[in-house]
Every structure is written in C-alpha cells, then in structure tokens.
Protein 1
Amino acid sequence: EVEDKELFSLHFLHTGNKQQIISRLKNFIELYKHWADQQKKRGETGAFTKYKRAVKDCLRKIEICTERISEGIKCLAENDIVWKSFVFANKAMYKQRVSMALIKGSINNASEFSKKMSEPCWYPFQLFYLLMIIPDFIDSDSPFKDVVDLLWFPTGGGKTEAYLAVSAFIIFYE
C-alpha cells in the first residue's frame, strides 16, 4: 500500500516544490529497497528455497531497477533541463486528462476539473518507469542506452500512459 499518494499526483508533480518532490522520491525508493531486502530474506528461507536461483535472479533485477531509478532521481535533482522536461511532461499529461474530461462532457470548463473529477495520478510503476528511463536518454554513456525496456500488464494496466510519459519527457528534453 502506497502511503504518499500525493507523490503520484500529476498536478503535484508539475506544481510542487522541486526539493520536496526529489526528497519524497528518494524516500519512496528507499522504502522500495527495504521491501526488496525483505523479499531477499523470504527468498532464502521457507517455501522459496526450492526456487532459489529464480528468486536470486529476480532480486538482482530489482536491484538494477532501483539503481536506475535512483540515477533518474539524481538526474532530476542535478540537471535543470531534465527537471523542467519532467515537470512539462507531467503538466502535459495532466492537461490531457482535463481535455478528455471536457470532450466527454464530464466538466463544462477546466476550472471544474479539480472539483468534479478524481485527481489524476500515476501508478507507481508508471512514474518509476519514467524515472528509470531518463538517464538512458540524457547520458550517451549509459550502460542501458541500447536496452529496450518493455512493460507487460494485461490490457488496461497503464502501459500506454507510461510510454506517453516517456515520449512527452523526450519531446520536452529535445
């Protein structure tokens, strides 16, 4: 269960204070690392001992992902163009949600959006997918520059929005 729900708000991510957002992203990834450590302990005992090799492989991949996400957060903190591109990407995704509500007739004008509609938020995997990918686009020496990171979820899981976020970030960054 995600406790810091505001961290995933598209509105917060394009209007919030940079230092506060960076700090909260760092806190969240530390919680995730703690969860991964707990899974490692579970994998070494109990029912998972039969699958030790698979567990070890999955945990190593989680470790690589958390390192990449941390690097993405570092890029946001240290590079103003990256930060602005991230903010604009979140703003574009937010405005798209407002536009869809207007088109569907759910609201009569944009000012009604925050009163009548639920706050558009990222699923954690969407936000952290974007953060994981950022260093690969801005650093020509990234060891993951030539890696294609694909998401797999059943239909309706949020893949398209995650890919659109990456696309929006790249457009603004370029």
Protein 2
Amino acid sequence: PCAVTDMRYTRPLEVESGEREVRFELAQDGQPRKYRVLSRSGDGWEVHASGTIARTDMEPAKGSDPEEIRDRCPEVMDGTEVYARAEAAGLTVGPSGQWIEQLWKGEGEALCRLSKPWEVTGVGEWLTYPGLLDSCFACLFTLLPAEAVMPTGFDRFRISRALDIETLWCHARL
C-alpha cells in the first residue's frame, strides 16, 4: 500500500498533435518522497503536478466498507451519466479514463465501482494507472459545486491494493 499526499495540480497537461516531452521526477532520498510531473514543448520545463508519495501500512479507514457507504449515499447514477455531466461542465475524459460503472452519492461523499475499460492494457505495470486517476477525479467532481471547474489538488489519496483485481472502489469525501 502507498499514500499520495499534498497533491497539487498547477497547470493542465494538454495532449495535442504537437510534440511534448513529459517527465516524472521522483526524489531518491527519504520517506515520503517528493515528486513532480513536468512537460516541455519548446523552451523550458513546466510543472503540472507535485506532491509526496510514501509506502504505508495504513489499514482501510473505518466506515470504508462499500456496503456501508452505499447505505449513506441514496443518489445513484451509472458511469455514462457521470461522464456526461463531466463533459457538460467542460471536463473531457477519454475512453481509457472511463472506469466508473456506477456511482452512489450522499452528503459530502461519493462511492464509485470501477472496472478497467476493455481498451486498456498493461494496467499491472503501473502503481496508479493515469486513466484510473481520471476516474477517481470524476468521482470527486460529482461532489463539487456546479461553478467548480476541476479539483486542483487533494490532501490524501491511498492505494490499498494492487491494480490487478477485477473490481475497484473509489471513495471520495469533501
């Protein structure tokens, strides 16, 4: 298990038809380790995200059983509706980032049942697959006020199991 903390998105990383070099930097010393996501298109590097990552032995949080969370979250929608709402708000998520099958939403929290889209391969090679993170942000996005465009960071993101399982869960809380 690992925990990502103090994650901040400082600039969108736009993937266009032009050339762009992307780099992930991870400090080699200490625990937790600091990291940055950068890109270069022409002159100089731009920082897109930063934070810290560390191994952890944290147990799942109390009250994190999916059945208990669903009981607290009466509003239900399927993944198609989640992504349609995101698209209407200007947040485009490509096919490899559409893992949400179903979402349950309550007061200040949401739970998503996730599964790997058929187009995605090589997930086991990643600690956190980028498209999976997009789906976790889409889950969080459903909790934000209508005028919010996109989350710019989070305090803690915990990965408690390997990604080689069929069904994953994302629990987002404000």
Protein 3
Amino acid sequence: PPKDNIIKMQEKARTQRHEEIQIKQMAHLVRDTEIHDEERFLECLAKEPITLVSDGGLKKTGGFGWVIACDEEVLAKGQGPVRGSADQLTSFRSEICGMSSAILLLGNIAKETGIKPEISIWTDNTSLVRRIRNLHTNNPVRAHVESDHDLYAIIVKAIPNMKVDEIQHVKGHS
C-alpha cells in the first residue's frame, strides 16, 4: 500500500541524512591523505595483497599517521590531529583514529569501485588488535558502548568491504 511506501521512503531519507552527517563529521580523518599514483593504487587494491600500518600518539594533543603499501612500495599515507574533548583524548583514541582514517579511505574506495582489497593490518596497540579481531562477534550494543565508539563504528562498517588476511601487533616502543 502507498502508506508503507511513504514510510520506507522517509526511513531511507533519514538514513541518507544520517550518513551524510557522519561523512561530514569524519572528513578530517582523510583530509591529509596522499595517494602517490591513483592508477597503481587501484591496481594493487584489485590484484595484490596490501599492508596497512597505523600509529597514534598523545602528548598534549593527539596525532595519527598510517601508510598503505604493496610489497615494499608505499601507495598512500595519511596523518592528522585527533579530535575529541579533553576527557576523550587518550593514547588509545590516537591509535584508533589512525586506523579508522585508513580503513575509512579503503572502505569508501571499496564501496565505490566494487573492489574487495586483500589486506594485512599492523599496529603497535594490542587493545586495538583485539577489538578488530573481535569484530566477527558482531555485537552492535558493544560497538556503541565501548570507548571511542564513534571511531570504532567506522571500522565496523568498513571492514566487511575488505578481505582481512591478518591483524597483527608490532612492537612500536622500546
């Protein structure tokens, strides 16, 4: 009936507005992204395994950085400040911000192109490794109540568009 169609159209419009707001709020995550050769980048995403390495840090303010490579060739890199209120700014938020930035970029490209990149993920934060490994539990409540749920939600949404071969910890500090 027509009333059901109107309700579905309203829900779709609400969802679309919500996604547009989220995109605007998260635009800072990919603002300082550099893709060296777009053609080569897409070729690697489509045909070869890629490696994502991210890091974050916090002194007085937070910052993050990441690289995406194919073999030993750096294809893309990104960096940026960590946003949040003073009580939100933690070392972990810096780490997850870096990972979210790179995964947001890869997820958007995968969605737009239909490419499902094969990816290995490396970070020096064991808590972040654990949280990403536990994505398969698909607990939507947990995703919204854990710390930094705004950034974690980006990872939750984008990861299904990728074939994640491994998520590993790398020693980052001595």
Protein 4
Amino acid sequence: IDATLAALVAGFVLCASRGGGWKLYLVMVCACLTRETGILLPASYALFLLYQRRLVRACLLATSALPALLWSRYVAARTGPDLLGAIAAAPLSEFFDLRVLRMAKYNLPGPVAWTLHALDWLMLVAIMLAMLLAIRSVLKSTRDHVAFAALAYTGFMVLTMVIATMHDPFTHAR
C-alpha cells in the first residue's frame, strides 16, 4: 500500500506539473482510495489553487476525495468505532504528550536491542530532517503544488508524532 501511494504521489507531481486535467483527478481519486493519507493530495492541491485564486478549479479537484469519503462512511457504518472517534474522545492533555519519544522495548539480546534502539532514533532524526526540509522548501521556494503537498504531509506527521507510539508499526516513517 505504501509503495502504491508513493507511486501515486509521483504521478500527482508529474500530472500537476503538466497542468492537471483528468489524469490528475484520477491519480488523486486513487490516492485517496489507496490510503487515508492520500486525502492530503487533493487537500493540498486545493489549497494551492486557492492560493492562486482559482476557486472553481479548487472545488472541482477537491471532489476527487468524495469516493474515499463515501467509502469510509460505508465501512464505518458496518464496523466498530474508528480511530478518529477515539482521538476525538481523548483528553486535550494527550495532544501535548510526545508519545513518539516513548521507544519500544525489545526483548532481545543486548547488542541487537541496542542496534534497534539506535535505528529507532535514527528514524526519528530522519523524519525531523524531512519535515524541516519540507518547511524550508515552502519558505524559500516558489510556492508550487509540490511545496503545498510537502507541507500537508509535514503537518500530518506532526499530528502523528503526538498521537503515535513506537509500538504501532503503521506510523512514523510512513
């Protein structure tokens, strides 16, 4: 799934660089349906178009998230509570606790556990550097669709770092 979304992000950059059209719309629909974080592509592109004062085009391309939103609603109606409900029910103090710094405890021999802890910290440093690079590109570059998408994913990563722990394999580096 992550490789698919990465390919769709590359397709988003390519199609948006060439002016958009139906191919960009299709890429954004597929990104939204592939993974929940794919919804950041149409959201960031709509913000980019609003920044350019292209309201009609922003509204049209924002509809690319509708199939995923309808699908999520369909699934939610037939399954148990979702993560967003659990997050909304959490006390506000939970959002100021950087749970990402609570490293996993590995029940392995010393050198192996130490190596895994070192790699965990290396991963966090790499994430922080990627976030800083995205912010820098927005501040220093021409504010294009790629910069808006990078900023959207950076904002999402900040939220992930607040609500996630190292015990969840579906967070962090993704």
